[in-house]
Amino acid sequence: MRWTEKYRPKNFDEIIGNGKQKKEIEAWVKEWKEGNPQPCLLLVGPAGTGKTTIAHVIAREFSDFIELNASDKRSYDIIMNTVGQSATTKSFFTNDNEYKLIILDEVDGIHGTDDRGGTRAIGKIIKESIHPIVMTANDFYSKRLTSIKPKCKVIKIGKVHTNSINALLKRICVKEGIEADPEAVRALAKGSNGDMRSALNTLQVIAEETKKLEMSDLELVSQKDNTNNIFDSVRRVLKSKSIDKVKNSLRLDEDPTLVLEYIAENIPREYEKPKEIKKAYEMVSEADLYFGRARQTRNYTYWRYASEFMGVGVALSKDDTYKKFTRLTGAMAFSLMGRTKGKRALRDGIAEKMAEKIHVSNSVAISMFPYLEIMFENDDVAYDISTFFDFDEDEIKRFRKRKIPKSVIKRKEKERQEELDKRKEKQNQDDLAKEKNIKLNNNSLNQEESLFTSNLEPNIKNKESNLKLETEKTKENKEELNSSKKDRINKNKSKKEEETTKTDDDKENNIKKDKEIKKDSAQKSLFNF
Ligand SMILES: Nc1ncnc2c1ncn2[C@@H]1O[C@H](COP(=O)(O)OP(=O)(O)OP(=O)(O)O)[C@@H](O)[C@H]1O
């Protein structure tokens, strides 16, 4: 295990140096925990001084945290997708009501044209986040920080003092059972120049196996810089067939893709048989694939596989170890990259223009370059294409050595102007025709309208008089109906009256008759007696 990990501080007390800054940071954490949101924290300072470590210690104070290497997320969309939502909703992990820390490492690593809104995205996250944010950066004066700094509480993390490093190294030597010359420990502390990571790495490299640290070891180490360390690793991979040794040699504090470049560069210097060289390069290519996958997915566990291929894979590609001295060289790729920086910038600029205009990716645009080179051989086509993409002189030079002749440019410009004039004229004519059409349409519309009205009017009048007649008729009918109804009612009434009188008469007669009958019967009964 790397000692930088083994001895990584787990709380503020274990972080050495920067006492005043630690207090400020602790106060910031306290405020958040008491429910008082604070501005985002920006820790700026040199490498290996504990910025990321501090961020992780802060993270322990919150319920959860999300960590992103800002320089890996150059796209606005990616940053917003990964952090944007988490920042604006409280529940980016589990507990809804608790604050979670957002760590954005290396915010100054978001680069120029590749930025694609990365800095803007960070600004948006700072503005909208309801969670605490800690950012780290190396370069206080980085342009990338210009817009970020004013929105943050900036804390400068300084180099760790030699005395503090010295004390920590001594403690580690005791824990690791290393017999250390105090003078050597001090020299190591001083030589690390405030970089705690470097001090720990050097101590581990020298003393982990030998369990000793002497001044003579340091003289050896002090001559070594990272590049020398890389050469040691590469030499070990190419010279050895011992898996352990090779694996150990690749444990160095260096970008593994850089180590891969160095190995690839030196394979043919050490290996002699074509079969060995072929196999070794197959291993390099496998390793490269894994690095690519790690980069794309940001899952850096793939690095492990990559190291297997570029270390053990390349080491075991040879039949036997070579007993010879080989002068190793640095990776040509990098010196080449340095030399071709301008060319690459030109290429990327052209690709970007093309990509934007014809909606393809930059790499597809670059893959069209050979065809453009052929097309650019023709002066007229060269002019047309460069005008279409808005290429400047340097960009045109990328595709043809000769400048486009002035006479061609003049003629083409004239043709272009004529074409433009023609188009303008045609446009004017079209506009006029359109206007005319509109007028004509309006006229015919008006005509149709009046025709319609004139046709409609008599009809309406007829209908109106019909309606009047009908209303009158209905009125008459109604009256008729009413009078007949009245008649009927009257008739019925008189009939009833008649009937009533008749009944009354009948009744009277009946009563009379009854009386007579009664009289008769009374007489009868008298007779009967
Ligand atoms: N102040 C410190 N106290 C104790 N250990 C430290 C301190 N600073 C760094 N270290 C050790 O160095 C290692 C690397 O430190 P860290 O990654 O925090 O540095 P950094 O400032 O973030 O560097 P970089 O800018 O390169 O990311 C830690 O794992 C830890 O072991």
Automatic annotation (TrEMBL):
Designated name of the protein: ATPase AAA
Q: Which domain of life does the UniProt lineage start with?
A: Archaea
User: What species is given as this protein's source?
Assistant: Methanobrevibacter arboriphilus
